[in-house]
Structures are given as C-alpha cells and as structure tokens.
Amino acid sequence: MSRALDDRSLRLAFARKDEDAIRRLYRLYGRPIFGLTLRVLGDRGLADEATQLTFVKAWQAADRVDPDRPIGPWLYTIARRVAIDLYRRERRHANNDPLDREIAVLPPSIERTWEAWQIRTAVDELPAVERDIVKMTHFLGYTHEEAAAHLGVPVGTVKSRSHRAHRRLAGTLAHLQEATA
Q1: CATH topology classification for 1-109
Q2: Closest residue by Cα to residue 41 from 103, 102, 91
Q3: What is the CATH number of domain 126-181?
Q4: What is the percentage of the chain residues whose pLDDT exceeds 90?
Q5: Model confidence over 34-63: pLDDT tens digits?
C-alpha cells in the first residue's frame, strides 16, 4: 500500500512540474523506455534520442497527468509515438529526397513488440504468487493441476490466484484494448 501512495505522490509532484519528480521518473522508467525504443528503432543512438524526447514531451504535458492512474502506460505510449516519428524521419532521410512524401510503413513487428513489452511489464508487476502462476500457465504451458503440484498448493489456490492475476492484468492492460478498438 505504501508503494501505491509513493507512486501517487510522485505523480502529483510530476503534475506540478517538480524537477525532482522528473529525475525520479527517469530513474524508474529510463531504462525500460530505452529498451522499448531500441527494439523499435534498432539503433542505440536513435533509441537514446527517443528516450530523451519521451521525457521532454512528458515534461511538457505533465500538467495533464492523472495522478490516480499509473504513469508507466502513459510514458510508454509517448515513447512508442516518439519512436515511430523518429523511424519515419529516418526513412525520409534514407530516401535522400526531401520532397518525397511517402509515408513510412512500420515493420509489422513494431506494434507486437510494444504490446509484448507492456504485457511482460504488467506480469512482472504482479504479486509474486500470482506472477509465478501466470508464467507457469501461459509461458510454460502448465495446466492448473501441474502448477499446483509444482508449487505444492491445492488446485483451487492456483485457480483463485490465476483469476486475481487475470483481473489485475485486465485492468493494467486495458489501454491495449482501447488502442486496438
């Protein structure tokens, strides 16, 4: 519970444009955002640029942050858009034709890469007992019975923890469904 309060106070401070808050957000999210932009762009220099631009744009829009909602998905959305813009810019420059108005088509994996990143982050943020069950049943292909045997708990416990985990994930990842709707 104290982590949620700390997160909320950080979001409130960020919304007030407290400079310490942007530093704390960068320490928390800088590496994951760099990883996301690196996967999208495939170039460390561009990923570095995209990461910096993400935090600049976030800072510019800080007054629009809802302190009651997690800030991570909002930052990842900004990072994704910045990476797409940089990708398009690089495509235009690669054509060496400043008048070329061709719209860059993103590789088909960009959306899937971003979604996979979001899902892995959400799973990693689950409580350990729920995270283990989700990893076993979804990533390793265990049945509920096999997970129960492996963990040494009743099948009913596995099912209830799985249900709670899926409810948390549905809430955390609702923005993915909104983005595809």
Answers
A1: Rna Polymerase Sigma Factor; Chain: A (1.10.1740)
A2: 91
A3: 1.10.10.10
A4: 25
A5: 988 888 888 899 999 999 999 999 999 888
